[in-house]
Amino acid sequence: MIESVFPQQFEIARADHRFTICVRYFLVALVLLFNTSISLAQKNPSLPKKLPSAERVVDNYLKAAGGKKTIVAIKDTTYDWIV
User: Fold this and answer.
1) pTM across the whole model
2) Kind and range of the H or E element at 40?
């Protein structure tokens, strides 16, 4: 009976209710997708199983910088700071 008096208001209320339900379904789907991606990421870590030793990392750095003699020859450094 009231619907026949104010049909537009009830139609807007129904549309709002449908929108709310769609938003809820979207959020649930988003949470499920997020949880699934996290569990898959934990099962397949991208890091190598064995990391190189610290000595190997430093040796590779020294090689890339030109060798130990080049690094030892550096006596002074200058930094330009821009703020």
Assistant:
1) 0.36
2) helix 7-43
pLDDT digits (tens, 9 = 90+) for 28-61: 888 888 887 776 666 656 666 788 899 999 999 9
Residue closest to 34 by CA, chosen among 26, 23, 22 = 26
Query: Which SS3 state, helix, strand or coil, does residue 53 take?
Result: coil
Alpha-carbon distance of 19 to 15, in angstroms, equals 6
Amino acid at 26: F
Q: Are 71 and 62 in contact (CB under 8 A)?
A: yes
The terminus-to-terminus CA distance of the chain in angstroms comes to 71
DSSP class of residue 1 equals: -
Cα 79 versus chain centre, distance: 33
Taking Cα atoms as reference points, which of 71, 73, 52 lies closest to residue 63?
A: 71
User: CA distances (Å), 10 to each of 1, 5, 29, in order?
Assistant: 12, 10, 29
